[in-house]
Structure formats: C-alpha cells, structure tokens
Design brief:
The chain is an alpha/beta fold. It folds into 2 domains: 161 residues, Aspartate Aminotransferase, domain 1, CATH 3.90.1150.10; 244 residues, Type I PLP-dependent aspartate aminotransferase-like (Major domain) (Aspartate Aminotransferase, domain 2, 3-Layer(aba) Sandwich). The strands form 4 sheets. Strands 4-12-11-10-7-5-6 form a 7-stranded mixed sheet, with helices on both faces. A 4-stranded mixed sheet has the order 1-2-3-15. The chain has a 4-stranded antiparallel sheet with strand order 13-14-17-16, with helices on one face. Strand 1 and strand 2 form a beta hairpin. Helix 3 packs antiparallel against helix 9, helix 4 packs parallel to helix 9 and helix 11 crosses helix 12. The longest helix has 20 residues. The two termini are 40 Å apart.
Length: 420
C-alpha cells in the first residue's frame, strides 16, 4: 500500500468512526468531559516528522505530542518489537517477575546515575512516586519525620493533587481546594527565600532543569550548583523532574547531566516509550529500601508491552546516538531561529536546550499557533507570549529549515494583520 492510499484509508476510517476515534456527529454532544480545549483537527496517521488529518492534509510536526514522539511517529524498531510482544503476552501483575521490566530498568541505570527504577504510567505518577519516596525515606529509614518538599514558582509537576500542589502555577490549582499539606513554593533564584523555607520538616527540593511549561527557561548553572550543595549540607533529597527534559530531549540522556550533578531522585516519562503510556522514577541505591514490599505500587506500570517499548526506544537511541544528534540539531535550530529573527522586534528572545526551544514574543502568540496549523506546521505555546518548539529527536536540517521558514511567514502575516 502506498503512503497516499494508506493515509486515505486511515482518514476514511476516522470519518466513519472506525480505526481512529471519530469526531462527534454534527450537532451531537461529546461523551467526553470538556477538560481539553481541543483544536478542530483530527490526526489519523503519522510517520517520522509528518502527520495527516482526517481530510488528508499533511503537517510538519514540531510538537511531537508534547515531547512524547521523540523518535518520530511510528518508529519502525519500536513498532516491530511491540507487535511481537503483543503476540506473546500483554499484561501480568507486578506480583510476578517481568523480565522485560528488569531489562528496561537496567538500561536506564546504565545511561544515568540511578541505581533503582520504579515504573508507572505517566509523568505525574512518576513525580508522585518521587514525593512519596522522599517522605518515606525520611520517615522510615532516617526516622526524622520530615515530609515537606520545596518547589519553585512557574514550575509544572503534574495534575494529581500532590503534583499540582507542588506546581508553582496557581492556574492548575483553581477549584481543587483544599490542597494537601507538605509543599512550599519559592521564587526561582531567590536563595534567601529558599534558605528561609528550609526547616525541620523539609525532606527535599524539587527542580526542573528547564522550566518548559513555565516559558522554556533553562536554570542557571550557578544556582543549581549552590542548590545541590545546600541539599548535601542539610541532608535534603534533591529531586529533579525530567518528565519533559529527559530521554535525550536536551542533548544529553537527562538534562541534569549538563550541570554535572547527580540528583538523589529524578523522574522520566513522555518520550520514554515512544508514545505508549509510561513513566519512571529513578533513584540512588541508598533510597531502595524506603520502597519496601507493599509501600508503593502500580497495576499497569512496566507491563510487558510498555517495557518492550521502553527497551526498543533506548536501544534505538543508543544505536543511532540520538542525544549527540540532538545536541547538534538543537544548536542548528537555535542558530537558524536567531538569524531569522535578529531584526524582528516582535521576537524578544530565542532560548532553550537541545530540541526544547522557546521563542519569547512581545505579545500573545495563540493566533500564530492557529496560523501555523493553517500552513501545515504544528507547535505549541509555553505561556501566553512564548512559542515552544518540540520537534522529534531525529528531525533533519531540511525539516528545521522548512519549519523556520513557515514560522517566519506566519509571524510576518500576524504582525501585518493579514493572518487575522
């Protein structure tokens, strides 16, 4: 089957309600909760950096499902291994040994400073596990009763009650009061406020190396160095949220590796299984005993199918030297953007790390996102005034040039008013 006929068949199936989920009938009400502000696009097929909608329109994807499709859409090696596993075994309880899970965990420890891994289903669950591990380590192993976690303003750690409380953005907390106790949020870089927040109940400090949802701000190395020293001096656990920045996104396996630190705990999700729902909480050896049998669990975490996807993702990244490619392509993307917009007053700054790029503008960019969709380029925001680019980690220079050219055209159209 040719690619064109393949897309046509997928689109036809979506329109008929077979294959991909169909849009609601004209005039009919959706059976879904309206918790997503969805764009009027139904994507039905993807390959590499390209996506097609139910009408057959092609898009260049520079959002990767929000940093999830790290190897591009439908990566062949991952697909082949997952399909083979589907013919063997889908799910067993974690009450049994799962060989694929052991292999996936070992591979993660080989590319990081971690010694032990807990598998779950999402980034929020991974961060929840990190918070629970920090508390349990202090209360059951150190016997000091500590439970508070310090986080930073503009951070984003998830949507569970604990992780939205940890998040340093008020908008995600609206309507969910009362929030659980045990979290203190301070301004990033305000070292005096941080030191004042540390008390006898402080168990750890939770940090993103790049505040992706908060505007794509890489954290300054000097601050990270001082923060790590404080944690060591006061016996606090340093927790790094790598849900969006991990798995090669920044040009290293994990973003904290740019900073020369080894966190006690860090988390991963999004790109870890090439689109299958998976998350991982990783930690140092001395924290292993805090999660004794029965202390924490996940029914679906690390099942044979998902673990196979994790293994195949990691193997592909190793064989193709993906983190090194990301470092090169990320520098290229940033340089092309800076050159393209150097004389454009609407663009204030281009920043980021690897293939996690933020373009800060002088005004809201929501209309620019819609113009991009019209021109066949998909990207997202990181706050009202920031365009966020998240291409897959195998993106080519030609695709980067194409995306930047489209972006330049639609920004010019928006400024002139022709895009309205």
């Amino acid at each position: 089957m040719t690619q064109q006929s393949d897309v046509k068949e997928a689109a036809t199936g979506a329109a008929n309600g077979t294959g991909a989920a169909s849009l609601t009938e004209a005039g009919g009400a959706s059976a879904l909760f309206p918790s997503y502000a969805r764009y009027p696009i139904q994507l039905v097929k993807g390959k590499g950096s390209l996506l097609w909608d139910a009408k057959g329109k092609q898009y260049l994807d520079f959002m990767s499902g929000l940093a999830v499709a790290n190897l591009g859409h439908a990566p062949e090696k991952v697909a082949a291994k997952v399909k083979a596993q589907l013919d063997e075994l889908w799910h067993v309880s974690n009450l049994f040994h799962i060989p694929q899970q052991e292999v996936a965990a070992r591979k993660l420890t080989e590319v990081s400073c971690a010694d032990a891994v807990f598998f779950c289903n999402s980034g929020a669950e991974a961060n929840e596990a990190a918070i629970k591990l920090a508390r349990r380590y202090h209360q059951k192993i150190k016997n000091n009763g500590r439970y508070e976690i310090i986080t930073f303003e503009h951070s984003f750690h998830g949507r569970t009650l604990a992780t939205l409380t940890a998040t340093g953005q008020q908008k995600v907390k609206d309507g969910f009061l009362p929030l659980p106790a045990g979290f203190v949020t301070v301004p990033l870089y305000d070292m005096e406020a941080l030191k004042a927040a540390i008390g006898p109940q402080t168990a750890g400090i939770m940090l993103e190396m790049v505040q992706a949802e908060g505007g794509v701000y890489p954290v300054e190395p000097a601050f990270v160095e001082e923060l790590a020293a404080i944690c060591e001096q006061q016996e606090l656990l340093l927790i790094v949220d790598e849900v969006q920045t991990g798995m090669g996104r920044t040009g290293k396996w994990f973003a904290h590796q740019h900073y020369g630190i080894e966190p006690d705990i860090f988390t991963s999700a999004k790109g870890i299984a090439s689109g299958l729902p998976a998350g991982a909480m990783l930690a140092k050896e001395y924290l292993r005993e805090a999660f004794s049998p029965g202390s924490h669990a996940s029914t679906f975490g690390g099942n044979p199918v998902v673990s196979t996807a994790i293994i195949a993702t990691l193997e592909t990244m190793e064989e193709e030297h993906i983190p090194e490619q990301v470092a090169e392509q990320g520098n290229y993307l940033k340089a092309v953007l800076q050159e393209t917009f150097k004389d454009e007053p609407f663009v204030q700054e281009v920043r980021g790390l690897g293939l996690l790029i933020g373009i800060e503008c002088v005004a809201p960019v929501g209309e620019i996102v819609l113009l991009g969709q019209e021109r066949g380029l998909l990207f997202v925001t990181a706050g009202p005034n920031v365009i966020r680019l998240l291409p897959n980690l195998k993106v080519t220079k030609e695709e980067i040039d194409q995306a930047v050219a489209i972006l330049a055209e639609i920004i010019a159209a928006h400024i002139s008013g022709k895009g309205n």
